[in-house]
Amino acid sequence: MTTQPPRPQKKVALIHLGCAKNLVDSEVMLGHLRDARYAFVRSPEHADIIIVNTCGFIRPARDEADDVLEKLARLKTRNPEKRFAVTGCYVTKERDHLKRTFPWVDAWLGVGSFDRIVEAVEGRPVRERGRTFLYDHRSPRIFSTPPGWAYLKVSEGCSHRCSFCSIPRIKGPYRSRSLASIVEEARAMAGRGIREIDLISHDTTFYGRDRGLRDGLVRLIRRLMRLEGIEWVRFLYGYPEEVTDGLLEVLGEPKVCPYLDIPFQHVDPGVVMKMKRGSDGERALKLIDKIRKRVPDIALRTSLIVGFPGEGAKEFLALKQFVREARFNHLGVFTYSQESGTAAEALTDPLTQEEKDRRRNEIMEMQAGISMERNRMSIGRTMDVLLEGPLKKGGGWAGRTRYQAPEVDGIVMIKDGEIRPNGRKPILKVEITAADTYDLRGRPVP
Fold first, then answer.
1. Binning pLDDT at 50, 70 and 90, where does residue 130 land?
2. Taking the alpha carbons of 16, 41, 114, 139 in that order, is the dihedral positive or negative?
3. Separation between Cα atoms, residue 159 and residue 322, nearest integer Å
4. Regarding predicted confidence, which is higher, 423 or 199?
5. Contact 205, 219 (CB under 8 A)
6. End-to-end alpha-carbon separation of the chain, Å?
7. Cα four-point dihedral sign 416, 417, 419, 422
8. Which of 84, 136, 230, 303 could form a disulfide linkage to 263, CB 3.0–4.6 angstroms apart?
9. For 307, which DSSP code?
10. What CATH class has 149-376?
11. Region class of 126: left (phi > 0), else alpha (psi between -120 and 50), else beta
């Protein structure tokens, strides 16, 4: 009796677009495909199946996805046997538009059904869920970040009603994972050699409220601190109104990175009111002063929006003065994007994109000087640095301190070919010897 040869493995290439939360969804989809015995390649040219996981939050993100799909259309024309699937926020937000624009795409999957990716790429029908998919510790996942750290998503959705934001419309109301599920996933991460866990969600400081937990994030962090193997715990994205005394207390713990990402968005009272945010410039500066007094060594990051309706010359000047006084360690600036279905859609948007870009560049130029001054203050200090991998140019290694979040902040460049990173001990002592605008340079301490 002869046996049939095994069916050749189908090869998948996944193109990830968007934020860290999207990245976790991409990793979970890869986990499901691995369990279904698919193989992975980096290049769409060499793949049988190409998946594009999209962001739909603002127009520039959707433009990026459109550009990627337009390039892939040429690949589909040359290789019609390849299958293409498009997933994520953009699909949920504008599925009909996408289907009309890119009719050659074989499968569409919104935010409710990431765990049905195998059915989608195989052409089987997928009935989309009415709410966003939220993975847990049992979900398969392939980590794509460097070996020493990983993101851990604690929730989905958002229950705030910021007038400019389409996330509640795309993702629905805030929904927390159970504390036990998060701790179990973190324990498994530690067993894989992950030493830094970065907690993420649309509002991490809101964690647990929908489950009736008081100080849910503080309780979660204290549980994670007790896990053997976890050396750094960082949480990203919190609302100013939710920075409690309990949270500031836990930020002083040895395993918790002294780092706060608080997107203030704007400071002029009139603009803040139109944004439906809760903290103007006066309150923001008082909060910053309080945080720095309680946690003197803390690194603060914020994001701002320029060009929002009602931001005239006076309001923009107030925003610049705020940046000058607050002296953030890290800062990002977005230009306002008018989004359909948001409360701000009804407001006039009088500024040109050129003027919005000019204002963004003006603030970023100011921040560059602040960042350089702050970085120079680190010269001569010896810091713990988590290695991420070889530098792309010139030899040496790239890493981060506890004051630098992955992917959005600067790095530490270590020019020493003698370093031999240990997968189980990726953190080493580094003396900071020089500073650039956003990056630090250093040498390992024997």
1. confident
2. negative
3. 27
4. 199
5. no
6. 65
7. positive
8. 303
9. S
10. alpha beta
11. beta
Residues 6+ apart with CB under 8 A from 334: 58, 303, 304, 305, 306, 360
3-class secondary structure, 266: coil
Write down the mean pLDDT value for the chain. 93
Tell whether the model's pLDDT for residue 308 goes beyond 90.
yes
At 334 the three-state DSSP class reads strand
pLDDT given at position 349: 82
Every domain of the chain and the residues it spans: 11-121, 149-376, 382-444
Q: Could you identify the residue written with the tokens 């010269």?
A: 379
119 close to 126: Cβ distance less than 8 angstroms: yes
Quick: pLDDT tens for 273-290.
Answer: 999 998 888 999 999 999
Asked whether 155 and 181 are in contact (CB, 8 A), the reply is: no
Q: What is 11-121's CATH superfamily?
A: Methylthiotransferase, N-terminal domain (3.40.50.12160)
Backbone dihedral angles phi then psi of residue 225, each to the nearest 5 degrees: -60, -25
Q: Which tokens is 391 given?
A: 């530098």
CB 233 within 8 A of CB 186: no
Q: Which pair of structure tokens corresponds to residue 147?
A: 């070996």
CATH topology assigned to domain 382-444: OB fold (Dihydrolipoamide Acetyltransferase, E2P) (2.40.50)
Strand 149-153, strand 196-200: pairing: parallel
111-132: average pLDDT? 92
